[in-house]
Amino acid sequence: MEMAAGGRARRRFMERLSLSGLGGLGMGAMSALGATPVQAATGSEVRQWDGETDLLVMGSGAAGMAAAIEGARQGLEVTVLEKFQLAGGSSSLSGGVCYMGGGTPLQKALGFDDSVENMYHYLVAAAGVHAEPARIQLYCEGSLAHFDWLNELGVRYATRFSSDKELSHGADSLYYSGGEQTWPFREQAKPAPRGHVPPAHNQTGGRELMKLMHAAAARLGVKVQLRMSAEQLIRASDGRVIGLVVEDAAGQRLNLRARRGVVLAAGGFIHNRPMLQRYAPELASSQPAWGRAGDLGMGILMGLGAGGNLLRMDHGFAVLPLYPSEEVLKGVVVNRFGQRFINEDAYYGGMGHAWLFQQQGHGFLVVDGDSDYPGPDYRFTLAAEAASIEALETALKLPPGALVNTVGYYNQHAARGEDPQFRKQTKYLATLTKPPFKAYDLTVGKAFCTVHTFGGLEIDLDGRVLDGWGSAIPGLYAAGRTSASLPVAPYLASGLSIGDGTFFGRRAGAHAAGKGA
What we know:
By secondary structure, the chain is an alpha/beta fold. The chain contains 15 helices and 21 strands. The strands form five sheets. Strands 1, 2, 3, 7, 8, 9, 10, 19 and 20 form a nine-stranded mixed beta sheet that branches.
């Protein structure tokens, strides 16, 4: 009963993430936000400048702070604007994982052999038709330098590897954070653990990462202004972005000038219902939404209103966390027709994508007496329980013989340590023969599947926002989930979002200073 109560509490907490850091923004204001582009103001409308700096950054998460830090390191005066009273953005809620490889010092210290080529081949294979080879290559080739950059900021990694099939609750700093060990990717690139996490208990590495990034920014003289809401870009007559219209805590409108540019790093749009329904209806159907309340799409709408192009707006991650316990991965996941559709040991982002986008959010996790959860679980409700697979099939109202045939075929080959259909890892193969047999409900809206957006403004390799003709908009940059960059659907690995945001955020800050990262 303690597990059940704790699970319900955790689920309620996750479902209320949208309420964290609300500050002065009421729910009415959130619901009123729409999907209409925010037209940029023109410089001629500005009667006076209320302040100025070299680089203005909208958002205080990992991407925005990376841009700010790199800009300051290159000699720029930088101001970061945060809408709420608490800095850190969604990055501070995350596990703090940064996806890095190619032979980092941590990988080598723990005895893992990796190369830039292996990292590249995995990311290209996992991204599939949405892969941007040039962007992926740049990221992989710069991974070791990015590790050093984080280290210079004060980020330290413990020389401890976790074999858990998810982010460890202990203070381990390296783990397999994606589908590197699962089929088909293990046959396309040599697996290596690339999830790098600052040592922190109970998956609070994001909080530790943001503390270190904000401390580093403060040492460099970066100004972080809280409860300053960016409302509108300001463009000169030649189209260059030269500043922002902002609103302070008292509701006063101010015009801030940016001599070298503006970086939009205000997160995605998971909490903007009209945008979700227009651009990513599959994500709108699931819950809970993952991210701080600032993920309202405002940076995207502002960039769109300045002529920016949108890319992959329907993409996002859908994390369907069957594990822990890993024992349940010995069961089978079937769709509404009683058929398997994916290897159960898939990375939970891949599982969620296949379930939500390809199976319309319907299905069941079928387990037996040896592969069941150890107790009641907050993520999934029990759909049916029976003494035989035949009876379970009937209780679920599946097509006659469908589940019987699926489990029979699976058992036949699992007994020999084989999985011809989806090549699940041998350690997760076991026959389903011990009653009671249970089916957990994976229906969208009932199953716990946290979602976040990946679509946003199209950017080049220096973080410059591109217009519909592929030309960079002078003075305008985007990073993190305000941009459409490395993360695509299905999500490739935990840590790629923070890795992408910090890596290309750095490049945006450096480019604004007139230098390469």
